[in-house]
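Do me a favour: review this protein, sequence plus structure tokens, and tell me how the chain folds. Record follows.
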Amino acid sequence: MSDRERELILAVLHEMKSDGVIRRHARKMVGASVWVKRLPREGLNRPKKFRVETEDVSLEGIGFTSIRKLYKNERLVISVPYKEGGGMLVFCRVCFCRKLPMQGYRYGVEFEDQLSNPQGLTSIPDRWLKIAYDADLSDEVLGSTADRP
């Protein structure tokens, strides 16, 4: 094995989590509660706001748990407040859903867009609302985390 091949293999192994999933970006473990807003879509006319418990975050997404059933490709907005006031709104897409052994679900969401929110408003851009309403949703749920090796 050449030095270059060895480096490539080590780089891939370094990006793997203990669950065996290869990650594009390193994740940081985070235990915080954040507000998430479900955007209107067919069958859901008004945005629904609720809290989730985050587990990890990367440059491109966040993982969290919730007792609420969300759909793959459903769009959400996460409100990120700043200590000094204001904050940011982050437009996200649900990438995967895994049923938890006891109760609830583990979700992975991908960041798609962000908007500075210095006044702390919750107004959602029309372009985000259109994308959310037109999304092709799936009720795919992966097996329980207890089923994983």
User: Anything to note?
Assistant: The chain has a mean pLDDT of 78. The first helix runs from residue 3 to 15. Residues 24-147 form a domain with the Thrombin, subunit H fold (CATH 2.40.10.220). Residues 25 and 122 are 29 Å apart (CA to CA).
